Amino acid sequence: MSILSEDERTAFVDEQLKVDRIHHTVGVYNNDSHTTNGVLGEHLKGHIEYNLTFRPGRAFFLNGKCLHDGYLSLERCLQWEKKLEVAPQPKHTLPYW
Which among 13, 55, 67, 94 is least buried, having the fewest CB atoms inside 10 angstroms? Predict the structure, then answer.
């Protein structure tokens, strides 16, 4: 269950890959602990692929949108999206974790 459909997610990611900026990503575990990264545009595709492949239980957000819900419920994903609306834009955090 994801907030974005597969087609919407693909379109959103494709749009974000065209934007040269620092992208805000957040990985959220079921206990609400989370990691935040500021990802350079040239690293974004690999960063997304890594997180969706190797962190399947963790919800993954890109620029405030839930790309993968992991073990979070729809309600909790929506809460995190709301929380991320007001999150400050990070500086790049290379190396990414």
Answer: 94
